[in-house]
Specification:
The complex is a heterodimer. By secondary structure, chain A is mainly beta. Chain A has three helices and eleven strands, in the order H-E-H-E-E-H-E-E-E-E-E-E-E-E. Chain B is 37% helix and 14% strand. By secondary structure, chain B is α/β, with parallel strands linked by helices. In chain B, the strands form two sheets. A five-stranded parallel β-sheet of chain B has the order 7-6-5-8-9, with helices on one face. In chain B, strands 2-1-3-4 form a four-stranded parallel β-sheet, sandwiched between helices. Classes of the chains: A mainly beta, B alpha/beta.
């Protein structure tokens, strides 16, 4: 019953983007990465919804917004399971999994206090070193972190 | 928008992993020629900046001697307190300003990644002379040159690393640079200062053989081609009793070298404290002072490579 209500909520979007299957623990990080707080249109955020795959999940529904794919892929870092639905005129016209880029710029804060990125006004830059457990390495100081533990700027 | 990160400045040397096998061999060859004749006016008319945001007298003197012997001129500072960075100037601004004046920047910084960042904000070459606990590629090149010179090859050697293998950046960089040369490593350290897991994974991924030892035993010593000693520092230990227990376990004295291979040489990045007894200094296996001298030739080679000067 919950499921059908959710489906209804998704279908109710006329034009825009629905990002589904975000692990609950990553939902608000995803909100931050996508810059949702700067949007002016209607946004619905669902949190701790039932999910067969994830246990609980989060969902973001943004009306009249179509993010560039590179922006959407930024959330692969913390929500590799996320699925994007592009809605036009109540129809899902495109559906895809987010995919992790090789390099992640300006999203993750380096955990090493002696890293140059924590001491200069500059953007951070990480390279993905292991796609299976999403481990990333700082381009500058080489410190390695699992993205799930990474601090988002 | 990030294309400039890789496009510019390919002649910088920030990390030893920036260069491959061929470039390592060509630098060693060039170092050998500088050793034969260190006084060549290859840098006539060039100005080199040595920017030492933290003091390191040994490294700075070595680099500045390298420039002077090649006829170049040096500007710079040996302590950031005398510069605008003490007024809050960003590293980027300092590098941009200095780039207007010189042909190459040699820099040491207390922050990790500082040299990489500097190489991204200027189009003149940057040589990393140490960035915090991160990288110090000219040390690695002089280590490689010392090994090459004493063994006649870098291939198929057994290299024993002793002491602080956890925090010692020199042993980590050496390990990474040796991946092209089919080495066998021995890691001799106490539990607290053992080789970090990520470097053991690196060995596995690159087919590098290694064994780990708690004891600095005759068996280990007598089957090594190179013994690379490092200092065990008290401040690395949470438990001072543990430090007292292990501090002398990894010391080397002359009597331990009786049955060493004739070709075996002892290296140490210096400064040493008591991990190598004074009586080793006159032993034919001792090589650490010559190793430091090799730094001059390795650095001459690195500077000329960065400036695109055939040497």
């Amino acid at each position: 019953m919950t499921v059908s209500k959710q489906e209804l909520a998704v279908a109710a979007l006329r034009n825009g983007t629905v990002i589904d299957h975000i692990p609950s623990a990553s939902l608000f990080k995803a909100v931050r990465i996508l810059g949702i707080e700067n949007l002016t249109g209607a946004v619905t955020i669902g949190y701790n919804l039932d999910s067969k795959k994830l246990g609980t999940k989060g969902i973001i529904k943004a009306a009249d917004v179509f993010f560039p794919e590179s922006t959407l892929n930024r959330i692969a870092l913390i929500a590799p399971s996320a699925v994007v639905n592009i809605i036009r005129d109540y129809e899902v016209v495109e559906k895809f999994h987010v995919s992790l880029p090789d390099t992640i710029v300006g999203i993750v804060k380096c955990g090493n206090p002696k890293c140059i990125t924590n001491n200069e006004p500059m953007r951070t830059r990480f390279h993905v070193v292991n796609r299976d457990d999403v481990t990333i390495s700082c381009h500058y100081c080489s410190q390695v972190v699992k993205s799930i533990d990474a601090k988002i700027i | 928008m990030n294309s400039h990160f890789t496009a510019m400045n390919s002649k910088s040397l920030v990390s030893i992993s920036d260069i491959g096998r061929d470039e390592i061999m060509s630098l060693l060859d060039s170092a050998r020629r500088f050793e034969e004749n260190p006084n060549r006016r290859l840098l006539e008319g060039r100005v080199v900046a040595t920017l030492f945001f933290e003091p390191s007298t040994r490294t700075r003197l070595s680099f500045e001697t390298a420039v002077n012997r090649l006829g170049g001129r040096v500007i710079g500072f040996s302590d950031a307190n005398t510069t605008s960075s003490s007024k809050g100037e960003t590293l980027k601004d300092t590098i941009k300003m200095v780039s207007n004046y010189v042909d190459i920047i040699i820099m040491r910084h207390y922050l990790e990644g500082a040299a990489r960042y500097a190489s991204e904000v200027t189009d003149i070459p940057v040589i990393n002379a140490g960035d915090g606990a991160n990288q110090h590629p000219s040390q690695t090149m002089l280590d490689l040159y010392s090994i090459y010179k004493t063994q006649g090859t870098l291939e198929n050697l057994t290299i024993t690393l002793v002491g602080d293998l956890k925090y010692g950046r020199t042993v980590h960089s050496l390990l990474m640079a040796m991946r092209y040369f089919n080495p066998t490593f021995r890691f001799v350290a106490c539990e607290e200062l053992g080789m970090p897991k990520e470097y053991k994974i690196f060995c596995d991924e690159n087919g590098i053989r290694y064994t780990e030892h708690r004891d600095f035993s005759p068996e280990v010593i007598n089957t090594s081609d190179i013994i690379y000693m490092t200092r065990v520092q008290r401040e690395r230990f949470a438990d001072i009793m543990e430090y007292e227990r292990v501090k002398d376990l990894y010391n080397l004295n002359s009597a331990m070298l009786t049955d060493a291979r004739p070709n075996m040489r002892i290296l140490h990045p210096l400064p040493r404290v008591n991990e190598i007894a004074q009586d080793v200094d006159d032993n034919p296996h001792a090589y650490y002072f010559e190793q430091a001298r090799n730094g001059l030739y390795a650095r001459q080679a690195i500077i000329c490579r960065a400036l695109g000067i055939e040497a």
